[in-house]
Design goal:
The structure is a single chain. This protein has five helices and six strands. It folds into two domains: 81 residues, hypothetical protein PF0899 fold; 51 residues, no CATH class.
């Protein structure tokens, strides 16, 4: 379950940012992240892990806003573009592998138009903390 490692990274990164900016007496109310579709992250598991890892910190109780970035592939040979959803039926058996190693999806894909294996992942592997919102703490 790599959702736990994502959640820990989110908490650690925001805590570092708070310290760096001298924001010691604040309560984080929202954390905004973008995560690629190819990571196959379960948003419920991610939120649960975030909730657990943020206990006792300024992030406790913060909303975790998750934007899932859709995948996009391009064939280097013919230029055709497509998404993960377009080829999901062919990849269904490999979902557990893709879940753990999203970068391997490139090795499992062929262009649906020309059948070339020269495929580039344009988007869908992101993990970005876009920002966070906070308010002054009364504590």
């Amino acid at each position: 379950m790599h959702e736990a490692s994502y959640a820990l990274t989110i908490v650690d990164t925001v805590m570092e940012a708070l310290k760096k900016e001298g924001l010691e007496n604040v309560k984080v109310t929202k954390v905004i992240i973008k995560i690629g579709e190819l990571s196959l992250v379960d948003p419920v598991a991610l939120r649960n892990a975030f909730e657990a890892y943020s206990l006792g910190s300024p992030l406790e109780g913060a909303e975790l806003e998750i934007e899932v970035v859709p995948s996009k592939f391009v064939c280097k040979r013919c230029g055709h573009e497509w998404t993960f959803k377009d080829v999901y039926p062919e990849l269904k058996a490999n979902i557990p592998v893709i879940h753990l190693y999203p970068h391997l999806v490139k090795d499992l894909l062929k262009c649906p138009k020309c059948n070339s294996s020269e495929v580039e992942i344009v988007q869908g592997t992101e993990f970005v903390i876009e920002g966070f919102e906070y308010q002054e703490s009364n504590e």
